Fold this protein.
Amino acid sequence: MPWTLAEKILARAAGQARVTPGEIVTCRVDLALLLDSGGPRRIWPRLRELGVGVWDPDRVVLCSDHFTPAVDAESAAILKITREFASEFGIRRFFDMRGIGHVLLAEEGLLEPGMFAVGGDSHSSMGGAFGCFMAGFGAIEMTGVVATGEIWIQVPDTVRVNWSGRFGRGVVAKDIVLFLCRELGMENSGRVLEYGGDTVRHMSIWERMVLTNMAAELGAETGIVAADEVTLDALRAAGRQPAPDALDWRSDDDAACAAVHEFTATDLLPQVAAPHSPANSGPVGAVGDVPVDQAYLGACVGAKLSDLRMAAEVLKDRKVARGTRLLVAPASTRAMTEAAADGTLATLTAAGAYLLPTGCGACAALGAGVLGEDEVCISSTNRNFRGRMGANSAQVYLASPYTVAASAVAGRIADPREFLR
Amino acid sequence: MKLLEGRAWVFGDDVNTDVMAPGLWFKSPMAEMARHCMEAVDPAFAAGVRPGDIVVAGRNFGVGSAREQAALALAHLGVAAVLAVSFGRIFYRNALNFGLPALVFPASSSVTAGDLLRVDPVAGRIENTRSGNLHVVNGIPSHLMAMVEAGGLMPWLKRRLGKESV
């Protein structure tokens, strides 16, 4: 009987011949991502209480990203515990202040098609862009994973989200996913969103990661994109030789799905999600005249090298408007290095961008760039919940890096198509 | 698991985890963070909630981040159960992993703030003593019952790992 990619991965991880949606299975974890936020500082005391160590240090990837760099005694202590944990348990793949964990997994070639992976952060779904099943969990449950190497999953229904056609100018994966937050709503629990169609096939791995990242906002179990040559090239570029069966990890064509959505990218307009929900989205032209205090390029979803390049395309030979500030927190030190090498960073800073450290930063009000009372921000991040980026009265609009950069130049929310040739 | 009885605090749809555990207070001790729990949607909640009270909410309660402090802040304030039309997936798992009963309650809009509720989380019985309504909903899922009855994931893991090492 034909079945879906997610079902095949879960069956393999559960050691079963077959799984069906709704079934509860216990899966063996191939890779566990721990971050400084919900990682060692919360897990280590519990491991001590249980009297156990890390089940398999070689299956754990540890990244400090939420509280980097330390700005006070509390954040310094969190980062110190994270380093001590790596050393105590011999975790070789520990990335200290090297970037955001979800992006590092891709840069380091740590994911591969067919893998069953978990992460202690909701945006762990981002890993699904590599054709693996990767989902986010709380630190309490990651404690169980680190102690036992296992976790229970209720096999989700597969929902196929197919996009066809070429994007218009200034339209990217972020616009798709903001559109989907409105169209499919944010309540897709019990479902895995499998993205496909020629629009997705033509996307880079970094753009696919935007789609799977925001499966979290869509409320799905996770998001996934079946592997193809783009995936294999990304693995090779990261120094990993793909397994011979990598391309076999795909849904059967006639596999039963809970739903199939077909959308056309051709007439999609740049999207903006107004406060205070990613589902509150619509075409950029519909938000009206919104002056902007801060434009923010940051986070796992919105400050990869590809995102910085989009912003630079808009900002080349232009200046950030007076009265507006543009803050840029690159998603990884590698993205920053490559952006420096190809001139992207110089374009951004010449336009007046203010460069911030790599890390999760202001996206979750943890680092530099937090918003004050009543301030308006347009951001390339993934959440605009009330208080998410600082003051409860701050107003956060979500958009693509193109739209964020265009708005920085205009000083108000702007359509990026006017800035792109 | 014992029967619960407490006053209802009523919330709408899409109450997210940033609201329950705001990032600005993330590094603070739980006692301080909990003082800001729900501040953005109901500034009176953290100061007014009493041990045993019950949170009643609309759709997608706990949407958003994986931060377990969201469920922990409610538990810290003494919330005895959360009843919602639906839950964000990680929040739901976190709550049960901390032994905080979370029940899917389609008729949550029938509850008014301050109603006295009696809840049997195992049987899935919700009684509103003001209106006299009795609702029967799905109890805690059977595959999680042993874990929740043990008091949450930690006590359950202790038992399991203890057994294995004997």
Notes: The CA atoms of residues 27 and 33 of chain B lie 8 Å apart. The radius of gyration of chain B is 16 Å. Residues 4-140 of chain B form a domain with the Aconitase; domain 4 fold (CATH 3.20.19.10).
